[in-house]
Amino acid sequence: MSLKKASFIIILVLLIDQISKIYIKTNFVLGEYVEVFSWFKILFIENEGAAWGTKISDIIPFVSDEAGKLALTVFRLLAICGIGYWLYNSIQTRGTKILILAQALIFAGALGNIIDSVFYGLIFDESYAQVATLFAETPYSSLFHGKVVDMLYFPLIDTVWPEWMPWLGGKSLRFFEPVFNIADTAISVGVGVLLVFNKKAFPQDDKS
Question: Is position 17 annotated as part of the catalytic site?
Fold first, then answer.
């Protein structure tokens, strides 16, 4: 796959990701949702941490939320540089189409969430009890301290455990609970492609 085709995939994913996030941010109050189907909702939340909302301060108690957020954003920037180099090297060495497609999706998804983390704190105001304003006069945070916008929610199962079950009886049973975005989807699909089509993505490793 050529650099031009990989760039097209990256730009397309980024556009869909950022347009959807900006639309949600400027039309929804935090926590507001629209039920598309019983198993699919558009639910606006903001993620201040890593996957599933995990914060560095949750793992290392003596690290403040602000310092943890900054460290996470810096780590993401370093990671995207590594992924970008990996993608560029694969294109230059004529890697397989499957490999470059997966890399382009992972790169686009990572970059999409980095844009939120780096810039959203500067260009939006708060979404608590109000719809946020783009290029607000009083932004909610600063450079590198933005929150990632999530909105895709698939509660495929939303019920309670049977009363007769020990410990779990009567408690909520919900699957799939995490809320994510287009960027997360691109990363997951890219990783999934590498796992499922591993031998096609790395034919030289297979020969060796």
Answer: no
